Amino acid sequence: MNPLETLKTAIANSFRSKLRTTLTVLAIFVGAFTLTITNGLGTGISNYIDSQVAAVGASNAFTVTRTDTSSGLGSGPQKYDPNTRVLAAGGRPGSTQVALTQADLDKVAAVPGITGVSPVTRLNTAYIQGNNQDKYQLSVSVLAGAQPQLDAGQNLDDGSQAPQIILPSSYVAPLGFSDSAQAVGQDATIGILDATGTMRTVTAKINGIEQNALLSSGGAFINKALSSGLAQAQATGTPSTTAQVYTSATAAFAPSSAAQIAEMKNQLSAAGYTAQTLDDRIGTVRTVINGIIGVLDAFAVIALVAAGFGIVNTLLMSVQERTREIGLMKAMGMGSGSVFALFSTEAAFIGLLGSLIGSAAAIALGTVVSHALARGPLSDLAGLQILSFAPGPVAVVIVLVMAIAFIAGTLPAWRAARQNPIDSLRYE
Amino acid sequence: MPVPILSTRDLTKTYGRGPDRFDALRGVSLDIDRGDSVAIVGKSGSGKSTLMHLLALLDTPGAGSVHVEGTDARSLNGRRLNALRNQMFGFVFQQFFLNHATTVLDNVVLPLKIAGVGARERRTRGMAVLEQLELADKARNKAGNLSGGQKQRVVIARALANNPRVLFADEPTGNLDSATGRIVEDILFDLNQNHGITLITVTHDHDLAARFNRRLYIRDGQLITTDEEHAA
Question: Rounded to whole angstroms, how far apart are CA atoms B37 and B106?
């Protein structure tokens, strides 16, 4: 019997006992459905986190700070070193952060693999004013390779000479714009205090409006031109002798492997700097979510194993029922290998049927539910599709279910194959 | 002298062991020539079915040998043995062993399917053999809906589908009324006389046995020369 004939006969045989096949297919359906849903959940949330992470910063950059060498409790106060400056920092009250100087930036830039270092300057913007007379508080940060998820408009152009800004969508209505699309292209005025306490203003064009996002700080993104304009305004009146110091710097590197990134981190660490990529900072969130998805997947696999026993049972009954037919076929010269292939193909076909229907139902239902959730309870998290189905993982699910079905089918198929034709023909 | 198509030497077969031990065959030697028609006659439990199964290479003997056209069956590997059963032998069973859920044609072409013959040629050859047995009009019917005589003719058609040289029949008329049985007998002898197919039939029916060229009487696992005891 050639393979095509085996396939056709196996398919025909699986439809011979319709009720039994249907029930087995249903059992597999439950497993495949669950597995596809949990997979969709994983893909959906990962996609969301990836886009959110990209919105906050570039993946190929470190945030570099000086490593704090003061040891913990009981070590007493640190000796004063005129070459080190500390800055007040966030965290618990009284925390300080060892400052970075231009010399530090040069040392960081000298590490092999680092393509550029820029200090993170604090721009203490006072307010923003739009179409109406109301002024609102605003914090700004430079883009540094981030890719915000935009409602309207486009991303900033760091090469442009014109000052540009991306505002969070929550600013649109207060600033007197009717909607995001209308706000794009309009001018906004940003106020900033200089070193002498005088309010100075800089005008910037609104280049885009950012969606509400999981990790967003609620601040605005500005391009290089606006950043230097604001820095200039802020520095007006600063005594020229004051050396520039920074709390942290952004060190960009060319896209690298994990090993290369670890190597750069080691070198920076040896030089006395702490370097963290965005993944280091966001990574824990991803680990927790992967853990949850893993547990859900495990439940789905348990359902599939149960379904596997259903396949064993179905096919054993089928072999029992067809004992004489198997005997007849063997008497007519059908080899044991062909009999085995016939029954295991039937098992794999039942598996394929169950997984196709299960996955299709999961995708249909999941898409509907996901859209409903995105419009309703999850509408605050713009861009979150809680269930999203990629062809790759779905194909993996289908192949996995077929493999389980095939393995479940080997025991009955083996029993069918080793039957002695004469014993089978005598069987009543 | 031509090589016999089937020959056996000192064939034995034992079922079970210990107190359940049963010697079905106790040293059977015979030769069957090409084109012959042979009836194996014996009572129930005499070992006649066992002998036929060993001749058809469906079972392995306890001791002794079966030669097919001079080749020792023990020297054949699984693949050659399957090919031999598929191409050389045809089987007609008393209980029919038809698949009732599928059509008459599908039942008839089963040996061709196993042989790996393509769908188109299977159909042509299946229809030809159904034509020969005057069943062409039933080709599309479900096998389960036929009468006993029709079923037995379908079984013969299935046995003939792959042009066998030896046809084994186990009580071919056992389940049929005498008129229908007569028709089936005529078909079998026509195949033997006009198509040169060697016919080997197991029966306990002496009227049927009388129509064969040769009769092999078997009792308690051994061939006996006359049917005196049976006649008695």
Answer: 29
- A5: chain B residues, CB-CB within 8 Å: 113, 116
Specify the pLDDT at position B108.
92
Look at A223-232, B29-38, B182-191 and tell me which has the smallest mean pLDDT. Answer: A223-232
What sign does the dihedral B195-B198-B204-B207 (CA atoms) show? Answer: positive
Q: Which residues partner with B170 through β-bridges?
A: B202
Q: Which residues of A touch B93 (CB under 8 A)?
A: 425
Confidence check on the interface: ipTM exceeds 0.95, yes or no:
no
Which residues make up the CATH 2.40.70 domain(s) of chain A?
122-245
Domain B37-49+85-231 homologous superfamily, CATH: P-loop containing nucleotide triphosphate hydrolases (3.40.50.300)
Residue for token digits 């096998």?
B143
Query: Where along chain B do its domains lie?
Result: 37-49+85-231
Asked if B24 and B60 count as a contact pair (C-beta separation under 8 A), the reply is: no
Find, in chain A, the residue whose alpha carbon is nearest to that of B106. A9
Cβ of A332 within 8 Å of Cβ of B59? The answer is: no
A122–chain B Cβ distance below 8 A for any pair: no
> What fold is seen in the domain A122-245?
Cathepsin D, subunit A; domain 1 (2.40.70)
> Are the Cβ atoms of B86 and A335 closer than 8 angstroms?
no
* B53 exposure class (CB count in 10 Å sphere: 0-12, 13-18, 19+): buried
Mean pLDDT of A361-367: 91
Closest chain B C-alpha to A328 CA, distance in angstroms:
7
Q: Are B64 and B9 in contact (CB under 8 A)?
A: yes
Please state, in angstroms and rounded to a whole number, the distance separating the CA atoms of residues A420 and A414: 12
A421 vs B contacts (CB less than 8 Å): 58
In angstroms, what CA-CA distances link B155 with A275, A303, B172, B195?
83, 45, 10, 18
Q: Which residues of A touch B58 (CB under 8 A)?
A: 331, 421-422, 425
Instruction: Give pLDDT tens digits for B213-229.
Output: 999 999 888 888 765 55
Cα separation, B161 vs A331, in Å, equals 14
Cβ-Cβ contacts under 8 Å for B68 (sequence gap 6 or more): B5, B6, B57, B84, B88
CB contact under 8 A, B97 and A324: yes
